[in-house]
Amino acid sequence: MNIDYRPGSFTVVDSSGREAAFDGDQYKWEITDGMLIVNAITTEGHFAAYIASDESDVLIARTSDGTTVGYSLVHHRPSTDPDVAAVVVETPSSELSKMYVLPDHHSRGRTEPPAQLLMRAAIETARDRGSVLVWLGVNQENVRAQRFYTKMGFERAGVKTFDLNGSIEHDFILTRRL
């Protein structure tokens, strides 16, 4: 498994990101217009901007034959969300904004699970950028993701509340000191 930092290509990420994002939050898509939301956040334009930004890193997990199986998006800037700012007081910090791996590449039976490799790379990227803490938001109903993040050293620090297309959501804020 290879992890690419700041890849030159974002079209493949876009396609894989949509599929993986849809699977990652599948429990929610029956309630909200999930595919519309996923399409709005995983367009080529968004990824081109993230790749070009000095404040963000896009990391791509690829198999040995070059097939994209997942990605993560890490932002290195202070949060403007008041709920996050109230609990993420150590600076500088980085936000793990997106973390998706295709379902058939999850950890089951793998010696080097892509999700763990991708998470370690995202944490190392934050550390290399000088961050002392990484934070993320995870839906309170997504128990599987919460288990993974806990396994990777994250702890619950608070809750952030936001409007997602008319639905009030409450995500746990998880943090990990570096």
UniProtKB/TrEMBL annotation:
Residues in coiled coil: none
InterPro entries per record: Acyl_CoA_acyltransferase, GNAT_dom, MshD_Acetyltransferase
Pfam families: Acetyltransf_1 (PF00583)
Chain ranges of the N-acetyltransferase domain: 3-178
Domain of life according to the entry: Bacteria
Name of the protein in question: Putative acetyltransferase
Lineage of origin: Bacteria, Bacillati, Actinomycetota, Actinomycetes, Mycobacteriales
Swiss-Prot/TrEMBL keywords: Transferase
Keyword Nuclease: no
Organism: Gordonia sputi NBRC 100414
Molecular function as annotated in GO: acyltransferase activity, transferring groups other than amino-acyl groups
UniProt-listed PANTHER family: L-AMINO ACID N-ACETYLTRANSFERASE, SPORE COAT POLYSACCHARIDE BIOSYNTHESIS PROTEIN SPSD
UniProt cross-references to SUPFAM superfamilies, sorted A to Z: Acyl-CoA N-acyltransferases (Nat)
RNA-binding keyword on record: no
